[in-house]
Specification:
Elements lengths: L1 E5 L4 H12 L4 E3 L11 E5 L14 E4 L5 H4 L9 E2 L4 H19 L2 H9 L15 E5 L3 H10 L5 E6 L9 E4 L4 H6 L3 E4 L13 H4 L12 E4 L8 H10 L4 E4 L19 E3 L9 H16 L15
Parallel strand pairs: 1-2, 1-3, 3-4, 4-5, 6-7, 6-9, 7-8, 9-10, 10-11, 11-12
This protein binds NADPH dihydro-nicotinamide-adenine-dinucleotide phosphate and oxalic acid.
NADPH dihydro-nicotinamide-adenine-dinucleotide phosphate (NDP) binds next to α5 and β7.
Length: 312
Amino acid sequence: MLLLHLNDVNEASWAKAFSEALAPYPVVRRGDDFDPAAIEYIFVWKPKEDAFDGLTGLKAVMSLGAGVDALMKHPRLPDAPIVRFVDEDLSQRMSDYVVAHVTMHHRQFSRFQADQKAHRWSQYYPPAASESTVGIMGLGVLGQDALTRLKPLGFELRGWSRSRKNIEGIAEFVGDAEFDAFLAETDILVNLLPLTPETTGILNYDTFRKLRRDRLAGGPVIVNAARGGHQKEADIVRALADGTLGAASLDVFEVEPLPEASPLWDIENCYITPHIAAISNEASGVRYFSKILRDHEAGKPLVNVVDRTRGY
Ligand code: NDP
Ligand code: OXD
């Protein structure tokens, strides 16, 4: 039996789609009448504290989100394997966000917007894409997809991860020892890391001041589409005020929703979106997790299982 436990999304709609895809395999929701011990799979988003209570026959936890940081902190998370969402549609949407913000900053959107507001005719020619470097933190599913979409646009590309990938045409940097070298020639820093104890607060003032300063006219730029826990917002405010950063695009925040009193709202060269960079699509999500469940019931191994020791 599959149990759905989704908060802040349309659980009824996902449940209907799963029932149709998996029939005759039973699918239930929290309010339904069922024996908790009969639940073999649970599909979760923002699970409540009692989400896993009594689920003694669990074969897998399936995560609606690609990021599992919040799930990993659940106080009563069972031992069952965790399968996270990996999906072409999700990758496409995330890359849409990344490409939009990278190209916007590369073409000096903030500068020309300010000139327009001031009725100022000030000719400035941005560097070509081939003279500008985008550095991606995290070369996983989303980081690698973003690279493949940025590459045809002509940018110099570099990436940072824990292990080497040998991706053609990309300057790769691995581990803490190569972090500073990675930053040193990055003009636009894109964060697509998972949130773990090692990556918490990585977008801080010290990181910002190590970015390349002499290429983008207004200063280097950060784009954070991963998790709010990666960024120190007080440091972003300071860096935007003193010119250490030329601009920032933030889709995620230390506290969500971003509090009304946050100074970030009023900074002109800070581009805020409300955690919408990429959403898990119902049709492809149901297809993906139904296949995983069916394959697993047929004796095949689970895929995209979270490594609990790494935390992602
Ligand atoms: P993956 O697990 O596929 O990739 C993670 C990458 O980060 C890997 O390349 C990994 O290195 C690297 N990494 C992890 N820890 C470190 C570290 N300490 N130092 C250097 N590199 C590290 O994740 P995805 O690409 O699928 O997703 C990334 C994140 O995007 C998610 O965790 C989630 O938080 C966020 N997200 C945000 C959304 C939004 O709407 N804003 C939507 C979906 C996801 P290695 O390859 O060597 O293991
Ligand atoms: C995710 C998200 O992790 O939507 O999938 O943030």
